[in-house]
Amino acid sequence: MEAINQRGKTVPKIPLIMDCDPGLDDAIALLLAMASPQEIDLLGVTTVIGNTPLENTQQNARRICELAKRSDMKVFKGCPRTFFAKLFSSETTYSATDIHGETGLGGCILPPPTMLLQPQHAVSFIIKTLLESPTKITLAPSAALTNIACALVMEPRIKDKIDKVVLMGGVIGLGNITPTAEYNFYCDPQAAYVVFTSGIPIVMMGLDVTRKTQTSEDWLNQVKSLRTPVSQAIVDMLSYYHRPDAILEPGVSGGVLHDPNVIAYLLKPDLYNGREVYVEIDISPTIMAGRTTVDWHGKLKLKPNAYVINEVDVKGFFDLLTERLKYYNSSPSSPSPEIKDCFQSPFQQTLFPDLN
Ligand SMILES: [Ca+2]
After folding, report:
1. I need a surface site. Which of 13, 20, 183, 312 has the fewest CB within 10 A?
2. Where are the alpha helices (DSSP H) in the chain?
3. Which residues are in the CB-under-5-Å shell of ion ligand 1?
4. Is 47 inside any structural domain?
5. Which residues contact residue 124 at a Cβ distance below 8 angstroms, ignoring those fewer than 6 apart?
6. Is residue 273 part of a domain?
7. Domain range for 55
């Protein structure tokens, strides 16, 4: 399939699989992708444990698809735990309700999904889709890399069918779950290690850049003025971070939109700058677990294995997001679910409000 770019040239659409753990910022990444059908051919959405248990992430992915009037989207349930058992010992013992709310979508209450969950396991879907595809496919993970690593271990031939992995995870500087580690990679360092040693082209969207895309009340008002069920849901999700008593990470003044950067990069790579460097994932069972050592200055003289982004045009990012959300003013097809009162229950405060 093809699309027309800004210069009037015909360019192929990006065949894409999103792997996520919705999660507030995952939800906005999904909405951005589904609002960009001219550029992105979204083949399916796979889910994994992360911000909230797997049952919530798969249900939330379907809720968001229905909100976007895309009940035709294929949503798959993936791994209920990660390789690294320290944090996720089982689906039933993990809870992050203080971070992303009871359901993973903050206090925004969307109706239970009515669209069906696909019966195939997410990892099987990833493998089958890649092997059967006549062209290469891009993967966009915005969670622990468990599903992607499982697919690579089960069927190494898929490497040749992956165009690139554009992921949210890692950090050059300080972590957000430990002093050194970013949340997604801390949740499953071994999975991140498998991906970063695979030889597949990787674009790493780490905290260094995603922390720069913080919501403001002005931007939320812009979104609110769109007056659609989608815009209202986004405002309700993100208003939490703008409460007077919200406890935010030092240097953070709003909601940090980590995951939508992955989709924004695919739509407008000119918004970003980075460097091809060597990245190593710490898989030691220590305080360093999940740390990304980024050889920014090439000290180790090792072959680069990732394009690490460190700069973003913040205004351009939010302008893109606002412009694309207008898609939902006029999007066709099935009826949108009714938005219930998004402030039925008070939000919980959190020490880690920007966890991705
Ligand atoms: Ca996420």
Report:
1. 13
2. 24-34, 54-67, 97-100, 122-132, 146-154, 183-187, 189-196, 207-210, 217-224, 229-238, 260-267, 314-325, 327-330
3. 21, 23, 26, 142-143, 259, 356
4. yes
5. none
6. yes
7. 11-355
Token pair recorded at residue 262: 């992955």
- Return the CATH number at 204: 3.90.245.10
Do residues 82 and 185 touch, judged by C-beta distance below 8 A?
Answer: no
The total number of structural domains in the chain stands at 1
Average pLDDT per block of 10 residues along the chain, 356 residues long: 64 95 94 98 96 91 97 97 66 50 73 96 98 98 98 98 98 94 94 98 98 94 95 90 74 90 98 98 94 98 98 98 94 44 34 42
**334 C-alpha to ligand 1 centroid (Å):** 27
For residue 258, indicate whether it is catalytic: yes
What is the C-alpha to C-alpha distance for residues 322 and 257, in angstroms, rounded to an integer?
13
User: Ligand 1 centre from 49 Cα, in Å?
Assistant: 10
User: b/e for 266-283, b at 16 or more Cβ within 10 A?
Assistant: bbbeebbebbebbbbbbb
Establish if 162 belongs to a structural domain.
Answer: yes
